[in-house]
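Worked example 4.2. Below are the chains of a multi-component assembly; read each line carefully before continuing.
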Amino acid sequence: MIINLVILLIIPFLMAGIIKKTKAFWGGRKGAPILQPLYDFIKLLKKDFVISKTTSSIFKIAPVVQIASVLFASMFVPLACGSALINVSAGLVIFAYTLSLGKFVSLISAMDTGSSFEGMGASREACFTTIVEPAFFMLIASIMVLSGNFTFDSLQNILVSAGNYGVLIQIFAVVVLFIMILIEGSRVPVDDPATHLELTMIHEVMILDNSGSDLAFFTWANSIKMFLLSSLIAYIVIPQGLTEWMSIAAYLLVMFIISVVIGTIESAMARFRMSHVFEFVFLMSSFALVVLALVTARMFGG
Amino acid sequence: MNSFFIGIIILLLCGFIAGIFSDKLKIIALSIFTGLASVFCFVPAIKVLLNGEVLIKTFDFNELFGTVNFVIDPLSAFFVAIISVMSLVTVIYANGYLRPYIEKGKNINAHLIFLPMLFASMQAVVTCQNAFMFLICWEIMSLSSFFLVIFENEKKDVLRAGIKYLVFMHISVIFIMIAFALLSVKAGSFDFNAFKSVLGENVHFANSVFALLFIGFGTKAGFVPFHNWLPDGHPAAPSHVSAVMSGVMIKTGIYGILRLISLMGTPAKGIAFAVLVISLVTALYGVLYAITQNDIKRLLAYSSIENIGIIGMGIGVGMLGLAYNHPVVAMLGFAGSMFHILNHSIFKELLFMGAGSVYTKTHTRNIEILGGLIKSMPKTGLLFLTGAVAICGLPPFNGFISEFLIYLGMFKGLLIHNFSSVILILFAIAGLALVGTMALLCFTKAFSIIFLGMPRSASAQKVTRDCEFSMILPMGFLAVMALLIGVLPIFAFVLILSPVSVLMPVVQYNILPTLSIVSVITLYALAFLVFLAVLIIVKVKLTNGKIDMHETWGCGYNRANNHMQYTASSYASPFLSMLNPLFKKVFDVEKPRKLFPHSAHFNFHVEDIEEAYVIEPILKSDEWFLSKFEGLQSGNIQSYIKYGLIFLVIVIIGSLLI
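Applying the procedure described above to all two chains together yields the following structure tokens:
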């Protein structure tokens, strides 16, 4: 558990750092040190607060609940190629619903400020969640059917349990999860984390009024969420049967690749218009349906 | 069993007795009597749940409809226990809620008679095992709740809603009557036990009876497409009545369905599929319309439809397990649905009471003109928030446990190697996830628009203090229950196992894995709470009083006012814009005209698609048809006597011919 906490404290920030470095590279700049997000985090923890007069105690407690729920949810996901810390049947449900608790409080804390910007961000965030989560459930549940094992371990055995369809299912599963990272981690082309202004209007705008450790908690929670989903990708991609060191190296490599890809996407393209964002989000559901089709084809298709 | 009847008799009489007391003492007297009756009913029920024995009391009505058995078996006991507790909680709340009406000089005597009568009839409905007597109790229940709904009968729309409710209930009772008539003719007796063998004989007969009864009971429960009375009935009723109707009374419909399943034995596969699909549609439909509503009680009514859908999904999964002979799936499904019945009665009562408290203080149900109430009503706000989190099924509250059990049942159901069941269950899993997230959207909207931000109107502004103790107390009790069951689900789960066993014919399964999962949730919940506590301490240390208060950030604009806040409609709009064809939007717009516009307004609400495209056309055509007979009502007494004479002649001739 201590190791998990250390991983959660470092790798999410490293990933954020690598993304920024990649963007700097494509932009022809030198960029900040890779650990800069971690330094920012520590600095923010020490800062004073500026809090809106409109807010109530909800606003103060929300960041804590958000980070607690994200940290708690992380115990149900396999990190660093081992099984999850708590590896139970239907752990998926506990994972997703605990994250939802965090989302609930972050939404109401945004609404607590009475700001129209933050209201707008909250409403869009809530809207995206309604599309993302069913697709996520459908994807993971479909994969679970194959192996008949309802823990996250089933993600690792796709090649074994799905036979010929294995590679295809892996590819689509990775695509779905990657789109989910872009949405939940509020990255381009869904959202733009670089402009800390109302223009982005989704996740980033929800935390306009947070400061000090509140802001630190929110940004940390967000990078952990991204990291957890990346871990699921790593769990799907990395083949079984590697030695321990090999698999940890492969895990770090996958994390690195995901960060670089996100950074590259952010350098290469602009944010979608809001109406196109919805189409992009629905892409995730369609790919999840493809996985479902592949799974049933494998199970019942002769 | 005798104590149960003492309880019912107290309930039937206490309304009349309460009328004797002075205005101030009336409801207090009623609360005491109801409390007494609740204890009398609750004790035998809890005994049955713990020991599993069955209590029977037989009355003999030879000439009329044979012997009437009142039976408390575990399934009935479960409902009796819920009804007992919730009726007491409701009456205590009514103390505070009715006070302003009494002070205004409204006569509430009739209300005080029908409220305990509703409780008594519900208790009788869930214990009576004779079809004829059941229908009588069912009718008393419908009628007494009708009189409760039209409490504010001087308002026209309240009366309209009440009559709509009455009509729906009578359409539903027709279906139940037909089904019971079919059954009793075949069985030669009105007793439920006699129905059992009849239902086992012929599959097609059993299926058609199930369909009839599902429509009948489903109308009470609020399954789509028979749900239409709920969103009108609940807002019209006073809040404690809507709380008890939504929290408990609609569950009698679910009880009917469960009782039927217990009589049917193994259901047909098609029926199980149908129940699952209808329930999924119900849940999605309910929560979608809940998002569209800006009237808090209509929103809660639609959310009841959603939760009935979730309960139905559990039942569907359970039936699927029975049909495919998968006892663990069946157990998980039924247990999940039973658990959700309990949970829903807790948090929906809590939320309706919260809505009622807000209404008492602000005199409006329109959430668009509320806001910032958490500062003037902190306790109500916190309790409403508890209910909102619980109803979204979020840990560590009780809603999570029941949804988790249903998910678990569905996951286990995926192991049934059958193409259609795998596909259906996968969609049901995604559907339940969708329902959960939509509920999240719905209740973040409801809570934050009512309680957070700045007051959006004078009526929200002028609230100065929180509700009185008699309104806070029952809500507090329910909120504590929601958290306790969420943290310690194992106790409730053990109580639920014996009613579940009634639904399942003798099958053996290993209960231990499920028990261990349910009990380990306690550990997780505690771990989470510890996490939270540690982090709060960290945060307090970090804060250390270094707080600056300023205006909300408005891009440098410091004069933001309450009209610039996000509204409920705009909060829901991105989501709803994706689903435009699924509802009818009604706009009322007056655009600003000319150089110096005098007035302009914009108003819009969402109409139920079923109401707009099915019910209204039917009513219109009915009106046309019935208007042909208007001439019969001449107001002339001679012609009425003439009608009577014609009728008599027809009867005499008819009986001679036969």
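Take a moment to check your reading of the output against the notes. Residues 2-297 of chain A form one domain. Chain A has one domain: 2-297.
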